[in-house]
Amino acid sequence: MQxxxxxxxxxxxxxxxxxxxxxWLFGICLRLVLRHRRRAYFRWEQPTAEPPEQADPQTPEDxxxxxxxxxxxxxxxxxxxxxxxxxxVLFELEGQSxxxxxxxxxxxxxxxxxxxxxxxxxxxxxxKKLRRAGILGAQx
Length: 140
Hints:
The protein is 68% helix and 0% strand. The longest helix has 24 residues, at 109-132. It is mainly alpha-helical. The chain folds into two domains: 1-45; 61-140, Orthogonal Bundle (Arc Repressor Mutant, subunit A), CATH 1.10.10. It contains six helices and no strands.
């Protein structure tokens, strides 16, 4: 996060006001994450420690279900390209419109539709495959 704000501070003079400031910041964040992922692929970085636990009012059972759902979602999304994954997550999980995603990603709206369609197709196919293999449970 610090790198995002350092980059934003360094490039503040290039902000032309053609979009929202949050859109501009998201673009910086997305590009930094993609660059980090590309570098991490070649360095084979592995996390060495888990972040500290936050005080959470959920019961242990709720926490388990949430972790299980997160792990299942990660299995479904793990083979998507970063661009398709970002589009899918922004649309399906964050509730952004395709127009907003196009603005955030600095791509034509048709590209967003194409990425979303391909991502959905991949996720549904992966879901069927994992259910057949018994890795994911039946529909809830």
